[in-house]
Each structure stands twice: as structure tokens, then as C-alpha cells.
Amino acid sequence: MRQSTPARRRLDATLAQLTITFRGMAAHPDDTNCECHWGSAEDLALLKTADVELDPDLLRRTYSASDWDFPAAMLRRILPQLARSLVDGEVMRLDSMDQAGRMFALGRWQQWPAEQSRAVRDFLDAWWFVALTEQDAEVPAYSVLTMLVEAAGGLDRWLRAWATATSPVAHQRLAEAFGRWEYDLLRDDLPWQTWWWTDDEEEVLRAESTGWLLQHAPTRLRMIGADPDLLDRIRLLGLACPARWDDPHWPDQAY
User: Fold this and answer.
1) What is the mean pLDDT of residues 128-141?
2) Would you say 100 and 59 are in contact if contact means Cβ atoms under 8 Å apart?
3) From CA 254, how far away is CA 181, in angstroms rounded?
4) The dihedral of CA 182, 184, 185, 190: what is its sign?
5) pLDDT by residue (tens digit) across 193-209?
6) Is the peptide bond before 218 cis (omega within 30 degrees of 0)?
7) What pLDDT, in 10s, does the model give residues 74-112?
8) Rounded Cα distance, 160 and 163, in Å
9) Structural contact between residues 106 and 68, judged by C-beta atoms closer than 8 angstroms
10) How many Cα neighbours within 13 Å face the side chain of 104?
11) In the chain, which ranges are continuous DSSP H helix?
């Protein structure tokens, strides 16, 4: 059974607040989608009916679609159930974290009335803290970050929170994330997919994540006894090319 911790209780409270805040919300009555590719008229009618639980497939098709005419209303309609699916790892199991983040971005939740936008922000903050600090978090921090960057339109808020999370678990999450990202970053590529970001904007994200790792990762990873080879690959990030490629510790897998 999952342990009740302050971080978990905070997250549970934000999920409950989403349910309260968005109770009675429904899709816009004029919204449509293609019956041949998206789903039936009956499915669409469910979205236009408030407070009816959606089956997992309908939920997935709804947040994966990028062509809603009224995405803000659609996001409000599915938000409490989508948030629970994110936390439980169901969205990750469908390999659609970035698509869920895109749905948040399309809904422009930061522009909603203060009570609504605060409920969303509180949920995202609480979920991120659980991902960083709870040993039994259902979704890896690097996958949560993929969604959060898309949903919130930036990286800085989440890296600042990671910098203040200094437990051994948060350090381990850093090792896991860099282990996932290292070969992309060593090739100067952003290690996750984005939607509608320009090449220049992706380069800003890559440079920001690389700079943050160079500043924070070496000390934190030494504290948990991380593999020296991992630390050495972080060092390589600080070298300009071609010095990076010519370094004797350049990993063959990065080619």
C-alpha cells in the first residue's frame, strides 16, 4: 500500500481541488471532431455532458486530439480525470505524456480565471514534487518533466524546484534523468519531443537544461555514489565541440 506522506497528501489535496473547481464543466456545445478518425457522435455527446466519467480510450483520444475548436472548454471538461490518469501512470503507459502536455498548452490554462489557473498550477507543482522526492512515484521525473515543459511553456520553474529538492531521492532522480538524456545532450539535441516549438526555442531549452546539469549534477551525483562514467559524461557537456568528440572519454554510443 502506498505510504501517506506530506507530499502525497498535498498532491491528493490538489486532485480533490481540481474536481471541485471544474465540477459541472462540459465541452463547448459547438465543438466537433471527425467521426471517421476521432470517434462517434455518442462519444462527443459524453464530452458535452458534465461530470460523467470517461472510459480510458475516450479520455486518451480527447487529450491526444489537437484540432478542437474550443480547447479550453475541452480541457476543463477532462481535467480532473486527466490529472488522475497522469498521476497514476496511465498516460505514461500509453506513451502520450507530451500529447497530454500539448492539451494543457492548447487550453491556455494560465489565462483562465485565477481560481481555475491556481488549481492547475498547484496540481502541477505538487505532482512534480512527488516525482522528485517519493521513492514510489508512479512516473519517472524525466517523463513528468516532458509533460510539464509542454504544459507550462518553459523549463525554469521546474528546474528551480529541482534545485531546492535536495533529498537522496531527488539526487537519484537526477541520475536517472541524465542516464536517459545523456547521448542526446552530448550531440547537442534536446532529449524529448516538443510540439510547435521552433528550432531556436528548442535550442534555448537544451542550453538551459545543459547549463543546469553542469551546475547541479556533479556534486549531487557524487553524494549518492553515482557511476564515475556518468559524472565524466556530464563533464563532457561542458566542452565545446570538437574538443568534446576528441576527449578520450567520449562514449561510442553517442555517435
Assistant:
1) 97
2) no
3) 11
4) negative
5) 898 899 999 999 999 99
6) no
7) 999 999 999 999 999 999 999 889 999 999 999 999 999
8) 5
9) yes
10) 27
11) 6-21, 41-47, 56-64, 71-88, 90-93, 97-107, 114-133, 141-152, 156-164, 168-186, 199-223, 228-237, 243-246
Which residue, among 92, 168, 101, has the nearest Cα to 134 in the 3D structure? 168
Q: Count the Cβ atoms, other than its own, within 10 Å of residue 149.
A: 24
pLDDT of residue 247: 76
Q: Are the C-beta atoms of residues 218 and 162 closer than 8 Å to each other?
A: no
Torsion sign, CA atoms 150, 156, 159, 165:
negative
How many residues in total does the chain contain?
Answer: 255
Dihedral sign, CA of 246, 247, 249, 255?
A: negative
pLDDT at 241: 81
CB 31 within 8 A of CB 74: yes
The C-alpha cell that represents 215 in the structure block = 551546475
CB 107 within 8 Å of CB 71: yes
Q: Of 116, 101, 120, 166, whose CA–CA distance to 14 is shortest?
A: 120
